[in-house]
Specification:
Largest sheet: 4 strands, mixed
Helix content: under 10%
Strand content: over 45%
Number of domains: 4
CATH architecture of the largest domain: 7 Propeller
């Protein structure tokens, strides 16, 4: 019996051990190969070790062709490309659409995403949704891009409500209670901000030489409130706390005080003093310009976070202060400046810097548009831009890179500034046409005619855009819709 033979038992044990060694080595080698492949390592046709990067490319419409350095790739959007480290001229194209192009750099082992390419049809087809006899006083879109409210001309209490999720559906009529607002010889509505519930919108109502704040409930207009009456206050400025429709910051410009209140508890509570301007984020972060500075020619920019005040910088005393802040990829970004200085300082995690042993605050970038009048982060918070007319300065938080350019396309009056269309593109009206371009001015596109008095309204999927036209020969103002997909892709 072999299993009782010591010599055969030793041979069997050796064979088992050798087998285990080979299996372990095979597993190790396979794991290392997979690991190296995951990091993009491979061999070129000459047997040399190379490292690739991964590039994810998506587009609207999907199924578009991808060309790299003039060579058509086998894959179409949406896809993942494995590319050798280097620079590429990438072009995305599709029949009946304008090309989208960008120079990209691929770094070995990296993962890049180009999720935003939007191809525009060669032929834009525009149709009229509704004609208005005169210019509507107000038109505004909800944050989720579904709802659009348009004030009916000739009325200060009646609005048309459009549902962009159902574009073929006729607008419904929204009528505010007659006793909601104060009547005057001259009246006008101005948007303050929407609540994130996409149901409530805060408006400022001007009548004669006075103003009041109205909270409109678009789902049930009878529940709309005159906040001046409800809160028993006449603020210089009223804004939402954390975009909640029932919580408010109450600003008194004369006394430079900022207070808080809510519909649940209408008592006015002190919050900050010496406030000249402010920008809030969430419910416990406030960036503000303070008159409590080292001299009368300076203004202090402070940050109040979690009950602690941080002094960020002093800027020149000015009537226009540029303040904004957001969170991107787990980091806090704060942008601040004065228009007269032509500089906006961008800081990353400023409280972390100030709480460190060094305690020094150093900007990661300085935006340098000349005398900027507007400052805003993109919808995805990756970019921040300041602007004055056609001059732009943009900072990219993901790649720590800045861009300065002049589009040479003047803004049509009366629009005060360009607007972020989404997370990566800017848009404004120039020469009677809507102009769209990437954050760095690449892929400039001229779209349809647009009235510069109103922002364009994109549907939630960016399949079409609604715009107002300027008055036609009959004097009518048309609300139009333009498809951003060809009929074959709709």
């Amino acid at each position: 019996m072999d299993f009782l033979d010591p010599r055969k038992q030793r041979q069997h044990s050796v064979l088992l051990m050798v087998g285990y060694v080979f299996i372990t080595a095979a597993i190790f080698i396979s794991t290392m190969i997979l690991l190296y492949e995951a990091y993009g390592f491979g061999l070129d046709k000459n047997g040399q070790v190379i490292q690739k990067g991964f590039v994810y490319v998506s587009s609207q419409p999907t199924g578009s062709e991808i060309s790299l350095n003039g060579q058509l790739n086998n894959s179409r959007t949406n896809t993942r490309l494995s590319l050798v480290s280097g620079s590429y001229a990438m072009k995305i194209s599709r029949t009946d659409y304008r090309d989208w192009q960008r120079n990209i750099t691929v770094i070995g082992g990296s993962v890049e995403h180009f999720d935003y390419p939007l191809l525009i049809p060669n032929k834009l087809v525009t149709n009229t949704i509704k004609s208005y006899d005169t210019t509507p006083g107000l038109a505004t879109q909800s944050p989720d891009k579904r709802w659009v409210l348009v004030q009916q001309p000739g009325s200060t209490t009646v609005f048309d409500e459009y549902d962009l999720k159902n574009p073929k559906q006729a607008p419904t009529t929204l009528t505010l209670p007659d006793n909601l607002k104060t009547s005057g010889a001259a009246e006008a509505w101005q948007l303050v901000e929407w609540s994130t519930d996409n149901r409530h919108v805060l408006l400022q109502h001007a009548y004669d030489d006075k103003t009041e704040y109205i909270l409109v409930d678009r789902s049930d207009p009878t529940q709309s409130l005159n906040l001046d009456t409800t809160l028993k206050t006449t603020p210089t400025k009223l804004t939402l706390i954390n975009k909640k429709y029932d919580q408010y910051y109450v600003y008194d410009g004369t006394n430079q005080t900022l207070q808080t209140t809510s519909l649940g508890d209408t008592a006015i509570k002190p919050y900050l003093e010496h406030v000249l301007d402010y920008k809030s984020y969430g419910s416990n972060i406030m960036l503000y310009a303070s008159s409590n500075a080292s001299s009368s020619s300076k203004v202090a920019i402070d940050l109040l976070q979690d009950g602690k005040t941080y002094s960020l910088r002093e800027v020149s005393a000015n009537t226009t202060y540029l303040l904004n802040l957001t969170q991107y990829d787990g980091d806090w970004f704060v942008a601040l400046g004065a228009s007269s200085e032509s500089k906006v300082y961008v800081y990353k995690n400023p409280t972390v810097q100030l709480n460190s042993r060094l305690g020094a605050l150093v900007p990661i970038y300085v935006l340098k548009a000349s005398n900027p009048t507007y400052l805003a982060f993109s919808d995805n918070a990756q970019f921040v831009m300041d602007e004055n007319g056609s001059q732009f300065s943009v900072y990219d938080a993901q790649y720590d890179q800045g861009y300065n350019y002049d589009t040479k396309l003047p803004l049509d009056n009366p629009q005060p500034h360009a607007t972020w269309m989404d997370g990566d593109r800017l848009i404004y009206s120039s020469g009677g046409k809507l102009r769209m371009f990437d954050y760095d001015h690449a892929n400039l596109q001229t779209l349809m005619g647009a009235n510069p008095g109103y922002l364009p309204f994109f549907d939630p999927n960016y399949h079409f855009v609604d715009t107002f036209t300027t008055a036609d020969l009959t004097g009518k103002i048309n609300l139009t819709t333009t498809a951003l997909l060809t009929p074959a892709d709709q």
